[in-house]
TrEMBL record:
This is Deoxyribodipyrimidine photolyase. It comes from Exiguobacterium oxidotolerans. Gene3D superfamilies: 3.90.660.10, FAD/NAD(P)-binding domain. One of its GO terms (molecular function) is lyase activity. Pfam families: Amino_oxidase, NAD_binding_8. Keywords: Lyase. The keyword Transcription regulation does not apply.
Amino acid sequence: MEQPKRIGIIGGGLAGTFAARQLQVEGYEVEIIEKSQSVGGRMATRRIDQGTADHGAVFFTVRTDELAQEVDEWLERGLIRKWFGDDFPRYIAINGMNQLVQSIARGIPVHLNEQVGRIEADATTLRTIADSQTRVYDAMLVTAPVPQAYDLLQASRLTLDATDHAALGRVTFEPTFVGLFELKEPLEIGEVGLADEGLVPGMLKLVNNAEKEISATPLLSVYMTGEWSEAWYDKEEAETLAEIERLLQAQLGPVELISRQLKRWRYAQARDVFNTPFLKLNHHPLWLAGDAFLEADDASGRTRVESAVISGLRVAATIDAHFKQHVLTK
Ligand SMILES: Cc1cc2nc3c(=O)[nH]c(=O)nc-3n(C[C@H](O)[C@H](O)[C@H](O)COP(=O)(O)OP(=O)(O)OC[C@H]3O[C@@H](n4cnc5c(N)ncnc54)[C@H](O)[C@@H]3O)c2cc1C
């Protein structure tokens, strides 16, 4: 009997985790390689003293049947809940967005704290090289944000077509700063703990994680706009955090703070997207997927939780079809 094909997936965000789960179901030997200390990627949650704050995705919405099916199951398993909105609900994960990815990744082999520096190819296999670690696969999937994925491919010994260079090189992402502030006293933000209108210039969203019911303490996540984050990107972190705090005080009036922290996302949201849910390199069994790879008829046109999930599912189906086709034509 033929050995199961080995698929290496770079990136344990939503796209990588969904692709991994699907390929595992189809009988492949799958491994995720993740540079951070946990899976989740931009589904990010931080513990601060006794509190918990989301500092990546705030909530998610559903337009596709596939995600709707997952949502029904997650609701049943108590992994998520509806935050607000009747016609177009906003969902959040119980105990923070990162927990949802952790739950989906359960049972999938993951190598954490391993940043792939380059990929090498020979006639039949691909190898990831990370510090002193080398891993060998029959096929690979790269789900890092496109500019990072392109940097990785350029540092690798792979053959890329001019069309791949052109397609990948044009995609840029905008950065996002998120300030995390622990308040001395509870405070209500809007009706449900979210304000995204009437905010001071530069501020995109203000979220109270206590009202979101993921934090035992009043912890605010202050999301800055892409434009503001771009302008402040290269300044000292202390100066940037102080400015976000000044804007927060201007927004809310004087509030007493216990602590403050800063999160800087270099690649938060794609400015340019693909109109295809994944990309395959012509010369290698290597695919790219992630939130910037949208279906041609995507109803939103934006990178988001749903686009990452759908991209992961589509690329998994294609990798499976690739190997099944291979067997049939042998
Ligand atoms: C601040 C912020 C707010 C957001 N708010 C919302 C929202 O409210 N609603 C919504 O729908 N979406 C939101 N999003 C977008 C959403 O979070 C993303 O679209 C989605 O999580 C992306 O998933 P992904 O798997 O494509 O990429 P990622 O989550 O970025 O996963 C890629 C993974 O690859 C890893 N990686 C990269 N390079 C390497 C390497 N060389 N070796 C090993 N590992 C590597 C990274 O560490 C990361 O874990 C937000 C994003 C941010 C940053």
